[in-house]
Amino acid sequence: MDDSFAREIWKVVEPVHAVTYFAPECIEAHKAAGLRGFWMGYFGSRGAPLGPVGPGVIEATFYGFHPARVRRAVPDAWSFAEPQAILRARTEGAARALRRLVPGVDGIAESVVPLLETVVTVADGAGRALFSANRDLPAVDDPVGRLWQATTALREHRGDGHVALLAGEGLDGLQANVLASETAGVPAERLRESRGWSEDEWAAAVEAMTASGLMAADGVTALGREVKARIEARTDELAARPYRALDDPQALVEALSPAARGASEVIRFPNPIGLPRT
């Protein structure tokens, strides 16, 4: 298994996890728990494993979001719903969504959850706050809830590593969005609006990246593409390591693919995650 496997597995792990952002069952579950509006639901539910943290922790771990967007939701989210209540709501909402979207998902969960949980157990949590917080959550009884939770933990494992690499290259959250837009085919307007940045702030980031040689008048430079390729390759390398605990990692991709296809029904393309159609 080479490191490129990590991108294959991401393409089937990410959609299963991402129902929590897009499926109506999940949005309604966050609302029923007490969270108000989409963004409080997003930051509150994704951040709940960390506990009732302040906005600075969310900004640092989520990366790429405008501080003002975060601070309109956190810490107010914790006054509307306790993290433990949010954790229950997000898992139950995701399980309902997956049962609607994925035929036979209970059978899929029965076969793949032991494999996914093996990977979660052996993965290195050092420097990975969101992953480690998710790994420490108690296992739920519902097998589909466990499927969603395992994919969520592994999604955050990859994401935490990716954030560390972006920071290591000297890219702040906004610049990371600009580079992603230029290289991954996600429209700049989609990323800018979803992450809360103004046109002027986006333009200032492009100007700073032009000064550093990553951008030019006609778009991303060869240096910019080299930096992006290096980040993505290293992200794959770090993310692939725990999957080597499996005898046949490719079998996990094949087993999860039907769930990913069904979950993708609620995901828009292109999307801010950068996820391609499954």
From TrEMBL:
Pfam family, one: HTH_67
The protein's name in its UniProt record: SalK
Native source species: Actinomadura yumaensis
Lineage: Bacteria, Bacillati, Actinomycetota, Actinomycetes, Streptosporangiales
